[in-house]
Amino acid sequence: MKLYWKILLLALLPLLLALGLGFFRLELIVRFQRSGREAADELKMALLNSRFKAYREDRSRNAAVLAGANDAVRAVQNSDTGFLVPWGELFLDPLRYSLIFFTDGDGIVLARAHDPYRFGDDLSGHPAVAAALKGRRSVGLFELDGEPALLETRPVMLYGEIQVGTVGIGAPLTKELLAHFSEGTGLGIEVEIEGFPPISMEECCGNTERKSVALFPSVSEESLKFRRIEAVFTEDELGADLRYFQRNLVLTMLLLSVTLLSGLFLLLRRYLRPFSLLVEDVTLLSGNQEDFFELRKRLAHNYLDTSHEVSVIAHSLSRLMERIQETITLLEWTSRTDPLTRISNRLHLDSMLEEEMKASAKTGSPLSVLIFDLDHFKMVNDDFGHQAGDNVLRRTAEILKSLVPVGFVGRWGGEEFLAVLPGAGEEEATEFGERIREAVESEPFPIGRRVTISAGVAEMIPGDTPGSLVGRADKGLYEAKETGRNRVVLRKA
Amino acid sequence: MKTQRVRPVSRSCFRAFLLLLVALCFLRLSSADASENYIFAVYPVHDPNRMLTAFQPLADFIAAETGVPVRLVVTGNYEEMTRRLADGSVHFAFFTSSGYVKHASSIPGLVYLATYAELDAKGLVTPYYHSMIISLEEGPVDALADLKGRNFGFTDKDSTSGYKVPLTMLRALGMEPASFFGKLFFLGRHDAVVEALRAGSIQGGAVSDGTLHNAVRQYGDVFRVLAVSESIPLDAVVAASGVAAEHAEAVRRGLASLAPDSAPMSAFREQFGWPAAGFVVLGDEFYEPLRRALEPAEDAGEQEADG
Predict the structure, then answer these.
(1) How many CB pairs under 8 A join A and B?
(2) What pLDDT, on the 0 to 100 scale, is given for residue B149?
């Protein structure tokens, strides 16, 4: 696992723990609030039921008084609308008892307190009035004037024995009446009656709870039946706020967490990725899976622009590798260079010759070798000293190095030099040998004496080994020496 | 002899003293209230508070005419008014014509003073009015006979023009309301009869001509008059027997001189909308035709009221 992933997880754990604790605490508060709300709702329901009951009892009392007053009984008996209207008006209430009427014994309306000049119509077919005409008190929900109404009717009795008419008291079941019942409770009421559109004091009612209430626990058999009466518990503001807060907090915290973690991840990645890369590079180096020089170059360049701490490490490492590389280069150069002439030594020549022969054999291109040997070099040493002899060797090496067109030259041993010419056939190699011979002969060495050089030439043939190839060139050299020196002899296979 | 002369003188003086004492007591009794204040009673044909407001200028006028403070009272009904006039606890009263016709004869020593008068539609001062049976012009009723089996509205059983006179009229035409109409309603007020007609609750009703006049002014000529009664005398002002004759006479003269723009008449107009014009002195005989007309009707009305 990468370093920044580890640090990210390390940072994530306490964050998740804090968030979890916060949510748990908030959930406790919400539950506490909810239980409080439920207790308050029960109280509201009790209040609502108590208001319904009080309304029923109060209306029943008013109906009894309306029907029981002696003057009213006489007025009903005598069709005294002029008395009954103001008598009924005394009991009118804009909401609670907005319907008060009297009928005679045939069900003909004698007076409507709520509509003083409308009377004379026949209500004997109305179920509540019909029940009252039969001497029964009737209570419930009835259609009256085209709308549902809470109504109580009862007979009007003369002397308590002779029925002379009926009285009705009630109110249309409107949302205003429902609002009156639920005033101050915060509850809504919804009513559904068969054949009528639903009545609701609330327009809303989205995410709300409903409970059935008993507006009329017992209604007369002729009453319309409620399909549904429900108290609507509108969501309380505190609870809604808490739940809103809870939802938003969760969303916010999730968003914040994702953002924070993403940011943290990017930050960690940005700062720790170089460490990881460096570790990878160093691992590759230690596993010998990466080129030393390529790696050094990468360390020097990849971390060049960063101000990160890893840059210092990378640069230090790069410098260290550079020094190692220099040392290696020096060691390599030393191992393949003749210290006197500063051209390839015998060891390097052997390996290079072998490589070039393999390459030529593979490609089929020609390859030739030349062995040079300074003529009478012992006399130079003897006459002018080894220092002068060394100078002659160094100058000869320079000439060889400067004139070799393709390939390389090296000191084969003593005063002998070997030139390897890949791509050159025997004629080209012989020409090269002649140019060297002439250059050495014409070179004004400081010893003041002409110095010559002999050479043997051989071209590689299939099946040659370095030894056989060089052996043939060496034979050519021997022949050149034998035949007067300062010559180039091609030795064919 | 001297003693004998003395005795008759003493006896005569004693007798004279007793007679004087009795006379003083009588005078004291008869003018006891008058020396303090008179009571002027009205019957509540409207809201009692409005009655007090409307009649207070007239009470003040009587006080000014008699020089005796007058207190205005509203009695609960005609029986109370009649009883109090009889026992002397009320000195002046304002009777509706039917109330006067019904109760005046039963009050000993009651003195008729004047009859209330109004301006009729032509602007003439008239001490009488009419009862009318009306329907809606646009309705199905063109004549009284069309009201058979339909709803009919009276005002109340104490109303002269709203019940008693039209009841007499109908019976004179052979129409017994209880059986002729589909349903009878007693609406309490004349204007309620008009409103119930307009609402279609009744198809015919009995009102005074003044009520119809106001209704036409308010709603236009949308009513049809089916029958009109004989003239009905307007309300009467009376004095109880205990009122000093000179005070009664002063009030009669004063009432007869009241102009339409006087304070009492203005108060009537403002409170009741009556086209009050003043008072005229016509005598008890003016009510005799009404008295004759209502006697059988009242009996029948009582039967009707008792169902």
Answers:
(1) 54
(2) 95
